[in-house]
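W.,

You were right to be curious about this one. When I first looked at the sequence I had no strong expectations either way, so I just let the prediction run and decided to look at it fresh. Below is the sequence, 535 residues in total, followed by the output.
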Amino acid sequence: MPRLVLLLFCAAYVLPGLFGRDPWKSADITAFGYMVGIATGRTPWLAPTVGGLPADAALLPYWLGAAFIKLLDPWVDPAVAARIPFALLLVVVLVLTWYAAYHLARTEAAQPLPFAFGGEASPTDYARAIADGALLALIASLGLLQLGHETTPELAQLASVALFVYALAASPFRGLQPKLAVLVALPALAASGAPSIAMALGAAGALICQRSSYETARQFVRWIILSLALAAVVASALGAWGWRVGASDITPARVWELLRLLAWFTWPAWPLALWTAWRWRGQLSDRHIAIPLGCAGVALLACLTMGGSDRALMLALPPLAVLAAFALPTLQRSTAAAIDWFSVFFFTIGGIVIWVVYTSIQTGVPRQPALNIARLAPGYVPSFSLVALALAVLGTLAWLWLVKWRTGRSRHPLWKSLVLPASGVALCWLLLMTLLLPPLDHARSYRSLVQRIAQQVPRGACIAAPGVPRAQVVAMEHLGGYRVDAVAPASSTACDYLVQMQSAASPGPGWRLLARERRNTRDDETTAVYRRAKN
């Protein structure tokens, strides 16, 4: 794939959603609250709090967001400034996945057998084609779509995992780069809140390198051990060690829920990765299979032990994409055609649905989608943006051209089977973040709720919020300008106003109910607003 086309493709995936929206519930705005608190000096760098509630051990991502907020203040909105480094981290993940697949495809065991009379692709061209396929497989992964565009510590963890996979892959071919990469990857993963995963990845990587046929890879084990030691020191210094294993009963319903998560979250990488493992079942110890398989296995084990955490499962996506790319040379024509037609059908229908909903919002025809939006996002007032419409039209035309090109009879390159899945994901994300961004932002942001609370509570007032979700505490602090105490109970707080969830017990006769406000149509998100009763 031409480099310019590949860069434009990545830009179309990364940039939508970066601007024009508030932080969304709940992990997105919670992480942003710690970042903006550090940047504005309301909370210390080493022990950040939101409403008095301490943060977890993922301090490195919070420092990163806070640094960009301070650097770009006052020219850039804090929410956008905090989002920029995490968009760059997503770019880093895409780049590192490409280079990891490239170096693994250059190993002798990964190269295809030469033709009897020559004419096969050069090792470099073949490795580039495999790397293009890995990048497309990662972009096509459904699980990366939302979580990869959030401002959360998990994106820093994802970049650290991709950096570690790259370090293992490049160790036989590069001198200084993989050594520096591994020395950064595991400590950064520990500082981002995942020290146990860092330890497991380091152990798996050391075992793989120790069994490698490359002498430089076997010597790389000492660097992995050094990185493990640094990660342990960082985790201890930041107090990152903690018990995060989620206890859950093993029932048929629970097993089915986990299988369903694995199926959609890692689609379409997982069937291709399984096919790779089957076709290379006799060479599972070869580097191009063992490295992505071992790293993906660690993330999958973390997901299972954490009760089916999708954020832990996200760490498996870069190695799974690399593993899926090695299935491309062995796919039969009928299988590739099935992937193409499924992608054309699924994503075309998805794009049509988004356009129909947008047309209904703007014109009222058809009527039902607009009514559904009004029900799911109460109080939303439709708006029109010519720029958003133009971008959506360009993205749709590009999709139609790709479908025509892929379904044509011309000769196509090795990565052809993943073009339509990756393009379809990028198309739907672009349409959502242009045509439907205003109603989505209204529904997933806390701004409308804070505006209704402001009708009862004057700006700058002190609000007690015991038991209120951290995301709502951040919204009241950042969007409402309130001083929030989320620690002290209603009986001992010095604040004159009290906010608590509807499900909480009554605060007692010392408080007078002012209003009950719902963030959206869900009853379990109803917020009760009280004022201290005057004697």
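Here's what jumped out at me. The chain has three domains: 3-108+132-330, 339-444, 447-532. And, maybe more interesting for your project: The longest strand covers residues 511-518.

Coffee later to discuss?

I.
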